[in-house]
Write a structure and sequence with these properties.
alpha/beta; two-stranded antiparallel sheet; 8% strand
Length: 222
């Protein structure tokens, strides 16, 4: 019979999916980061958003203010406003979208690479705002391109834009990279480009993109 000490059995490490938040935090305090490729991928995208550098109306002034030292949008990794749509992944529609401007906005959206996101900033970008009844104002940019975050206000303050950016980051971090619930930019059945409207005799044609927006149906009692 040997008197050699027995080797202690190592404690099994819990699987990444079974570890609690407290255990994850304890590991982080010891310099160990436990994550998945999906979380790392989404973390990098959510904290390196590059907005497109363009504005439409008075909401753009608030967007510019959000980039100044007082509000400092750079804290959230979105300080690089790109002048080219081919280098941007976030479109902030800040202001009134006239029907003359709508084709250009859709064209810019089509030139942006995937993954890309859209924030409708202000009442005008969401629904036409106080100019909704005008013949020359589009009643919401979501009639032509998909909108991820809506920020109400006329105009919304820079803090509201920062809150909308945080909500967009949460949405990006929750996206899946595989499976039936995969993000839209990873699915072949979701379009990346949308038809650019043209100027018709009385209105822009088409007046909306049926694949993106359809009027709500109001149930009526007989």
């Amino acid at each position: 019979m040997s008197d050699a000490p027995s080797t202690p059995t190592p404690t099994p490490f819990p699987a990444a999916g079974n570890i609690s938040d407290a255990e994850r935090e304890e590991l982080r305090r010891h310099g160990i980061l436990l994550t998945s490729l999906e979380e790392l991928y989404n973390w990098g995208r959510a904290n390196s958003i590059w907005p497109l550098q363009f504005g439409l109306a008075c909401c753009a002034i608030e967007m510019i203010a959000a980039a100044t030292a007082r509000f400092d949008i750079a804290r959230f990794g979105a300080e690089i406003f790109r002048p080219s749509p081919r280098q941007a992944d976030l479109m902030i529609v800040s202001g009134t979208v006239t029907k003359k401007m709508a084709p250009n906005v859709v064209r810019l959206w089509n030139q942006m690479p995937e993954p890309k996101y859209c924030i409708a900033m202000g009442a005008c970008a969401i629904s036409g705002g106080p100019f909704k009844q005008g013949y020359n104002v589009l009643k919401g940019i979501d009639r032509f391109i998909p909108v991820d975050i809506y920020i109400p206000g006329c105009p919304p303050r820079p803090e509201a834009l920062l809150n909308g950016l945080i909500e967009l980051q949460k949405k990006i971090q929750a996206e899946k990279v595989a499976g039936p619930q995969a993000a839209k930019h990873l699915r072949a059945d979701v379009p990346s480009e949308f038809p650019v409207p043209e100027y018709g005799e009385h209105d822009i044609v088409p007046s909306k993109n049926p694949d993106v927006w359809s009027p709500p149906s109001l149930p009526r009692k007989a």
